[in-house]
């Protein structure tokens, strides 16, 4: 789940930050040393500056980071809305089902023909659904629903 949340937050340029903590951090015993004390169980946070653990994570008992020596970076405490998390789960399920390289949905071809056989698949045009060149990508299919979370580039 953290991987798709990281990708979606990047896509909409919005990590829903509550506070940003900069300094030196370290990961020992699969846990972040110097975790900001105001973080709450179940809250999402973002790690920047780490070699192995860059991304969005959920703070709970199942959290297991990759051990890493001290790094200079930042930890952002986030307030990701539940409907955004639910949308991320939906997109993740779609990706699992249709997003593979062998999936017909991800094929750049909309039709093919060989001899007496021909095939055409429908889909939204790339120009009407987001900026993706593949009209069947998750960006194109879910772009309209993600738009309300978008922030201008350069503003965080």
Report on this model:
The protein has 156 residues and is of the alpha+beta class. It folds into 2 domains: 17-78, no CATH class; 82-148, no CATH class. Helix content is 24%, strand content 28%. The chain contains 3 helices and 7 strands; from the N terminus they run αβββββαββα. The strands form 2 sheets. The chain has a 5-stranded antiparallel β-sheet. A two-stranded antiparallel ribbon has the order 6-7. Strand 6 and strand 7 form a beta hairpin. Helix 2 packs antiparallel against helix 3 (138-146). The chain is elongated, with a radius of gyration of 19 Å. Mean pLDDT is 86; it is low at 124-131.
Low-pLDDT runs of 5+ residues are: 124-131
The coarse overall form would be elongated
Straight-line N-to-C gap? 22 Å
Helix and strand content put the structural class at alpha+beta
Summed up, the domain count is 2
Number of strands: 7
The percentage of residues in β strands lies in: 25-35%
Q: pLDDT average, as an integer?
A: 86
Helix content: 10-25%
Query: What's the arrangement of strands in the largest beta sheet?
Result: 2-1-5-3-4
- One letter per element, helices H and strands E, the order comes to HEEEEEHEEH
Helix count equals 3
Radius of gyration: 19 Å
Major pleated sheet: 5 strands, antiparallel
């Amino acid at each position: 789940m953290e991987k798709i949340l990281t990708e979606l937050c990047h896509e909409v340029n919005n990590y829903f930050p509550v506070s940003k903590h900069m300094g030196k951090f370290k990961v020992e015993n699969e846990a972040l040393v110097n975790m900001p004390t105001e973080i709450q169980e179940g809250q999402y946070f973002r790690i920047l500056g780490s070699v192995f653990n860059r991304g969005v994570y959920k703070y709970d008992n199942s959290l297991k980071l990759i051990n890493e020596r001290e790094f200079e970076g930042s930890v952002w405490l986030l307030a990701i809305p539940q409907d955004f998390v639910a949308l991320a789960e939906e997109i993740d399920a779609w990706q699992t089902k249709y997003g593979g390289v062998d999936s017909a949905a991800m094929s750049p071809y909309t039709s093919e023909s060989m001899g007496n056989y021909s095939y055409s698949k429908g889909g939204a045009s790339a120009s009407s659904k987001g900026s993706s060149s593949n009209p069947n990508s998750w960006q194109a299919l879910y772009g309209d629903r993600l738009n309300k979370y978008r922030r201008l580039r350069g503003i965080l």
